[in-house]
């Protein structure tokens, strides 16, 4: 079992610092709020319409940590002049199995945070943590999948040094269109 961790991403001249931490029940209201965004709903694999949905979603993230096979992180940004942190996204490492050479990463960004490098900065932190934590268990590569028409995800993959590998066939209902598979190796 992996103990929950908090990852820090330093501020840059153009972007505030980020904190990546396991999801908590206190995140439900913010999750419901950001989930109202049409663009996010277009790409999300699960829909969060209300507090009950949000609670189930956060519980699933917590169960993944407990099982040691899925590690979801709320991505938070410090608000200038405030002690509060604002939910700006999610990154996840999934399908982690000891001895298996590959695992998958995923992410989403809240509407108010898009176009500011949140996803690529958070993904880079998750990638480093994944290889640092699981390379000794045989993790050699991370796979990033997105629908072929999700151009923003393709840019995040490229910025994060996930090399394009192949086009994947559609797999409805969860993957209704063709997709791209991007790969980052531990040695990259």
UniProtKB/TrEMBL annotation:
| Coiled-coil region(s) | none
The UniProt entry's GO CC annotations, sorted and at most eight, read: cytoplasm
A molecular function annotated in GO for this UniProt entry is: protein-N-terminal-alanine acetyltransferase activity
Looking up Pfam families in the UniProt record yields:
Acetyltransf_3
The source's domain of life comes to Bacteria
Give TM regions: none
All copies of the N-acetyltransferase domain together span 18-178
Listed name of the protein: Acetyltransferase
UniProt source species: Streptomyces lucensis JCM 4490
């Amino acid at each position: 079992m992996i103990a929950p961790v908090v990852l820090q991403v330093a501020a840059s001249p153009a972007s505030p610092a980020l904190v990546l931490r396991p999801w908590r029940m206190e995140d439900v209201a913010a999750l419901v709020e950001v989930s109202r965004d049409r663009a996010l709903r277009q790409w999300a694999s699960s829909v969060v319409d209300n507090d009950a949905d949000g609670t189930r979603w956060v519980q699933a993230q917590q169960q993944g940590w407990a099982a040691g096979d899925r590690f979801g992180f709320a991505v938070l940004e410090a608000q200038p002049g405030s002690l509060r942190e604002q939910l700006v996204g999610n990154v996840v490492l999934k399908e982690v199995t000891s001895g298996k050479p590959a695992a998958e990463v995923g992410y989403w960004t809240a509407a108010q945070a898009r176009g500011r490098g949140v996803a690529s900065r958070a993904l880079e932190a998750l990638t480093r943590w994944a290889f640092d934590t699981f390379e000794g268990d045989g993790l050699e590569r991370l796979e990033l999948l997105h629908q072929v028409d999700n151009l923003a995800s393709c840019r995040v993959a490229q910025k994060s040094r996930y090399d394009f590998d192949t086009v994947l066939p559609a797999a409805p209902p969860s993957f209704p269109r063709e997709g791209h598979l991007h790969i980052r190796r531990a040695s990259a």
